[in-house]
């Protein structure tokens, strides 16, 4: 397994605790298990995936918690360690300003990755390219169940169920993002829909 729960050892800089793999520390929204279940089973030869503690849904609080735990673990850019905050817009307009404020706290090695309206857009990209607009996350989940009939947010094997289609997903996600840009939509907002930046995370993990 490529995943470790945070909290065992604080990895000091330049210490003998340095693992061969670079570390990606992720934080996800609230009690949402989907992203955690997906990435905890994602295999990478270059990176070890860990998860930061927290149950916030506010992007600013999430990025602050991520930065705090990233520093506490002794992770750093020089060793290639990364911090990732995975955000859903959830069709909630008030999140636009929160995401914008969180972006100001990001750096080259600690960033947020936004899906509009939700992570399930990334899963849908494994099966189709569609620019359909959604009014809720539930609508996306309903559409996804056309392809994964038993899909649930607590499915621990969602990565295994979709991984054979991941190259298709990368292509479709890129096309969606380009489509939104071509219409003049602003990235990291609710209107930038449907879209997902999870393709950037997956591409990074697959590149090695």
How is this structure best described in words?
α3 (95-103) links the parallel β4 (82-88) and β5. By secondary structure, this protein is of the alpha/beta class. It has one domain (3-206). α2 (59-72) packs parallel to α3 and α7 crosses α8 (198-206). The chain has a six-stranded mixed β-sheet, with helices on both faces. Helices cover 35% and strands 14% of the residues. The chain has helices at 34-39, 59-72, 95-103, 120-124, 137-144, 158-162, 166-182, 198-206, and strands at residues 3-5, 22-27, 47-51, 82-88, 110-116, 195-196. It contains eight helices and six strands, in the order ββαβαβαβααααβα. The chain is globular and about 45 Å long. Residues 1-10 and 12-18 have low confidence and may be disordered. The longest helix has 17 residues, at 166-182.
Radius of gyration: 17 Å
Would you tell me the overall average pLDDT?
Answer: 91
Q: Which percent bin holds the helix content? A: 25-40%
Order of helices and strands: EEHEHEHEHHHHEH
Strand percentage lies at: 5-15%
Q: Reading side by side through the largest sheet, how are the strands ordered?
A: 1-3-2-4-5-6
Terminal Cα span: 17 Å
Q: Key terms for this structure?
A:
globular; 35% helix; 6 strands; 8 helices; alpha/beta; 208 residues
List the helices and strands and how they pair.
Blueprint: E1 3-5, E2 22-27, H1 34-39, E3 47-51, H2 59-72, E4 82-88, H3 95-103, E5 110-116, H4 120-124, H5 137-144, H6 158-162, H7 166-182, E6 195-196, H8 198-206
Parallel strand pairs: 1-3, 2-3, 2-4, 4-5
Antiparallel strand pairs: 5-6
